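All the exercises in this workshop are built on plain-text protein records. There is nothing in a record beyond a sequence line and a structure line. A learned vocabulary of local backbone shapes supplies the integers on the structure line. The question running through the whole workshop is how a given chain folds. Here is such a record, shown just as it appears in the course material:

***
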Amino acid sequence: MRRIESSWARRLIGPVALLGAGLATPAWAVEVEGRLGFADRVALSTPVAGVVESVPVRAGQRVEAGALLLALDSTPFDQRHRMAAAQIEGLRLAADEAALDAERVQALYDRTVGSDSERALAVIAREQAEGERDRVRAQAALRAWERDQARLEAPFDAQVLSVNTAVGEVVSPQLTPPTLVEIARADELLAVARVDADQLGALELGDEIAVDRNGDRQSGTVDAIRARTDGDGPVRYELAVRVPRGDGWRAGQSVTLDLPGD
């Protein structure tokens, strides 16, 4: 029943004999109580400072990957990018002219009618002009990146858990980036249970087990096995199983995990 696959890659329903709807749990399975939680919970912020212009989502809303979650006022970002871009063409022409001048001086030098100092000054002027051109090109690219980072977009199909900002708020991430929007996966949940070493048995990451919520069974894959201990007490394990989000399945609900027995 074990498939050696990544827990991210597995989306297949497990063996029908174990996971088919309405079929009884095999005698060798051990049932443990667990609770559903959010999968891939992520706190999002912007790496650039600005003023919040729009927040088109609300807590509890489901959004698709790429959906806009928040946008800062783009005016300062657009203007800084235009200022840098406007200098590029002039500096390109200056660099081209400095390169041609260096070639002319070199030609005179090769004909022994130019001095070492003239050639050196021409080379320096060329390098300075090219360096300034490249600096402004890099600055324009940085300004374009800052403009893009003024928008928060969902990295995957998600459920919005909280919105902690509003239009008009000033965002300044220089010290500690604030959490502006918090999301989690919309199509998956984590079923989490505390088990001891004997209950855990030979389970490994990626193994398939069944998760039951009031008779509604889903095939899940083991996503994490975390060792927990309280001081000198016995070691217990937090077992996290990634399951598809069925109809009516919500974080916080109680579930039963069917673990392989001896």
